[in-house]
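Pasting as-is:
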Amino acid sequence: MSSSFEKYQKRRLISSYFSVVISIALVLFLLGLLGLLVLNTKKIADHFKEQIALTIYLKDTAKEVEITQLNKSLALAEYTKSTTYVTKEEAAEAHSKEIGEDFMEFLGYNPLQNSIDVYFKADYISSGEIDTIAQELTAKNFIDEVVYDKPLISLLNENVTKISFWILAISAIFTFIAVLLINSSIRLSVYSKRFIIKTMQMVGATKRFIRKPFILKSVKLGMIGAFIALIGMAIVLYYMNKSFPELELLNDVSLLAALFIGVFLMGIIITWLSTFFATQRFLNLKTDELYY
């Protein structure tokens, strides 16, 4: 009878530890994913900014040497991410594929122009910066027109600012919720042993002596939960990098290492503090109050 009761108690204890580890792991995993999003918000925003092109349409009278020099000077400019020279023939072929028919057969000639697409570095994507560059280019006599999507740039910059603010706000709220959830799990675990705590106190054990095994056990559970969360984060990060290689998510090794270490330490610190205050609460209660 005694043996079966001990087995039952042991199963309950393992189940309790398992639920604590899983809750810690899930909360830290979600917190870690949010941290990845925060760290890569700028990178993602920069990626979309760098897809916006400024198109320079060249006059038919433009000389080959002028086009070559312009292309080289643009490629070497500090604001340029990349440039692409598109001949009128290439533009006509691409346009024909888009509309599904050869429009030149209908018109009898190619109305398109040679052009250079300029893709900017993200830091230079603002209406003011590009306006200045466009004006300088328009002044050249062999350039017919300079075109870019000004409303899109303004809208993108506004949305990036708003999204960054809300991501930071949500991160702060979620961190607070994460602390509360882990704290609740730890407190429930300590609550189930409140009579043991009071018994040890009644036989003369000091508060520090009573707290120590509870804190050590909770910290171990926190480390296991954090380790599981880090494995989940690593898997998600691997597949995200595989799916979106252009974002180069694995390039900032130091930032990723800091995030992983931060999540691991958070698992230890939160469990340590939660256990400390939970045990302290029951240590300060009178025996009669343990039943409520």
